[in-house]
């Protein structure tokens, strides 16, 4: 009974196939300086962005370059697709979810045209941060990961 209030561990899977890297490698001081929160980034091998956990879509930016998800355990997760991609006004992005929709880990959220981003000279890095994470420590599992593999553990 007294174990009910212990901190629980959360596993966050990679939302896309690719190379998981430390936030410090992101070429943007807001993310690399962790001003948006702790997290990780993925250099994507493809443009299919999936839910890293079971939860609910809290918000989707009109340009589809970012969304927030509330995990079933209450953790808020921001997934930001590329750098300066808001300037594309949604071109190159297709959303498969709506605000308020419940998702399972692995569900397709957004499709990104990586070639379109390259043609428009936009960095395609996928950033996953936890803006309101408190009283938890994070362990990032760096390296090449396939969709569904654990990229971060929060304790």
UniProtKB/TrEMBL annotation:
Record bears the keyword Membrane: no
Family annotation (Gene3D superfamilies): Glucose Permease (Domain IIA)
Keywords assigned: Kinase, Phosphotransferase system, Sugar transport, Transferase, Transport
Entry superkingdom: Bacteria
Positions of the PTS EIIA type-1 domain: 28-132
Compartmental location: Cytoplasm
Entry keyword annotation includes Phosphoprotein: no
Protein name, as recorded: PTS glucose transporter subunit IIA
Organism: Enterococcus xiangfangensis
Lineage, broadest ranks: Bacteria, Bacillati, Bacillota, Bacilli, Lactobacillales
């Amino acid at each position: 009974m007294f174990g009910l209030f212990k901190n629980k561990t959360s596993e966050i899977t990679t939302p896309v196939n690719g190379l998981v890297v430390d936030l410090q490698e992101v070429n943007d001081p807001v993310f690399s300086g962790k001003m948006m929160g702790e997290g990780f980034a993925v250099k994507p091998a493809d443009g299919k962005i999936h839910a890293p956990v079971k939860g609910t879509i809290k918000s989707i930016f009109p340009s589809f370059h970012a969304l927030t998800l509330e995990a079933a355990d209450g953790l808020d997760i921001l997934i930001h697709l590329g750098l300066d991609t808001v300037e594309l006004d949604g071109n190159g992005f297709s959303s498969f979810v709506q605000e308020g929709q419940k998702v399972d880990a692995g569900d397709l959220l957004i499709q990104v045209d990586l070639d379109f981003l390259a043609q428009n000279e936009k960095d395609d890095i996928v950033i996953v941060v936890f803006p309101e994470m408190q009283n938890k420590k994070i362990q990032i599992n760096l390296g090449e990961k396939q969709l569904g593999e654990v990229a971060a553990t929060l304790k």
